[in-house]
Amino acid sequence: MKSKVFFASAHASSPEESYLEKIPKILKRSGFLASIGEGSRVAVKIHPGERGNLTYIRPAVASRVVRELTARGFAPFVTETTTLYCRQRFTARDLKKTAALNGFTSDALGCLFLIADEEPDLPVRIDGDVLESVKVASRIASADALLVLTHVTLHLWTAGLAASIKQLGMGCTGRRTKFEIHRATTIITDEERCDGCGSCAEICKSNAVELIHGKAFRTEKCSRCGVCIGACLNEALSATHDYRTFMKGLAEAASGVMRKFAPGRALFLNFLTDITWHCDCEDFSDVPVFPDIGLVASSDPVAADAACARMINSALPVSGSRAGSEEIIAAKDKIKALSGIDWHLQLEFGEKVGLGSKSYVFEEI
Ligand code: SF4
Ligand code: SF4
Questions:
Q1: Which of 17, 44, 152, 289 is most buried, with most CB under 10 Å away?
Q2: Concatenated DSSP letters of 274-326
Q3: Where are the beta strands (DSSP E) in the chain?
């Protein structure tokens, strides 16, 4: 059966048509509000941006969502998990500070901002090819309903496209599951180039580097986050990825999270604005590679991502951006041409594990 995907354009010429005011309309049209009971605790999952990143979803957008949920008698809280990589969201304390710096305070949001994986994760057994069980972040797993706000970007590290499936599989799970999915990456040290300077050990918050006889070696603790690669001025570090295994793991993890919610109790809002070639985990923001398109809503994360990818691939890249070359403009699959990654795999595996369907009915509001 085809899933429903709702779309609201980013264009506006009056306050009534503004992007913010399209949020309550698309929430209502999606049917999500009608399928959760009064007083339900709704986990509003966001990515508050890495420190230094400026293209994450604005707090005003999350606040508009919270205001609508509160007005309808629900009890929302905004939430995010800590990261596996070694930047400024690595611990709960880091994450709270970074989120506050980027504007995600309880005052601004109109509800609590909670760290989703501060308490022990709740496992869901799935017996997948990559994951035996999925460790769902406890505050997400114990909510009555889930509303995932995703800033859609390209992802040149492992996924090609970062949208709902990635937010679910990586963003809603605990460190153990993130670690297991990232096993598909291998960090390689070129011993000829390594002079034992120790910069990689200094930047690694997982304490996963050992210096032995003047050379750096990664230990079992290494989460394959890749942050040390940029810190090595000798270019001694590189990575290879088994994209297929990574995306299968991502889809399996996403399906595990969805098993915590009854049908109709999870909704995905994908924001096609400030579409950068990198995700919001980067500690910088380049200019967007595609123009603002709009807002997509669906209870099916596979359908939501398929619709977003179709609209990105149909858009004219921004002149002067990374996607502004003749080769990318002419490409049918601009996401693949730019990322070099077969991003479709996450949708295909998503279908196989019962997460959703790539077939959808599209309705503009
Ligand atoms: S930063 Fe590079 S050169 Fe320095 S120890 Fe690490 S791998 Fe070796
Ligand atoms: S050694 Fe490098 S890739 Fe591994 S966890 Fe540390 S920073 Fe990340």
A1: 152
A2: SB-SS-TTSSS-PPPSB---EEEEES-HHHHHHHHHHHHHHSPPPTTSTT-SH
A3: 3-9, 41-45, 75-80, 113-115, 122-125, 133-136, 145-151, 153-155, 160-162, 185-189, 209-212, 215-218, 237-241, 266-272, 294-298, 360-364
Instruction: Name the 3-class secondary structure at 365.
Output: coil
Per the structure block, which two tokens stand in for 146? 């889930």
pLDDT at 77: 98
The residue whose CA has the least distance to atom 4 of ligand 1 is 197
Confidence label for 157 from pLDDT (cuts 50, 70 and 90): confident
As for ligand 2, residues whose beta carbon falls within 6 Å of it are 86, 187, 200, 203-204, 206, 208-209, 218, 222-228
Residues across the chain: 365
* Residue 17, domain extent: 3-180+243-364
Measured between alpha carbons, how far is residue 263 from residues 25, 35, 258, 330, 354 in Å?
Answer: 21, 9, 9, 40, 12
DSSP 18-31: SHHHHHHHHHHHHT
Residues 294 and 162 in one domain: yes
| 164 plus 28 within the same structural domain | yes
Question: By alpha-carbon position, which residue is closest to atom 8 of ligand 2?
Answer: 225
**Residue in this structure with the two tokens 């750096």, named with its chain if needed:** 216
User: For residues 22 and 8, what is the distance between their CA atoms, to the nearest angstrom?
Assistant: 7
Whole-angstrom distance, CA of residue 301 vs CA of residue 350 = 9
Question: Which of 224, 238, 240 most suits a substitution to test ligand 2, by most atoms within 8 Å of the C-beta?
Answer: 224
Residue 296 maps to a domain: yes
User: At 129, which amino acid appears?
Assistant: D
Could you tell me whether strands 133-136 and 122-125 are parallel, antiparallel, or unpaired per DSSP bridges?
A: antiparallel
Domain count of the fold of the chain: 2
pLDDT at 19: 87
Helix (H) and strand (E) counts for the chain?
14, 16
Distance CA 163, CA 301 (A): 8
Average pLDDT value over all residues in the chain: 96
* Cα separation, 288 vs 285, whole angstroms: 8
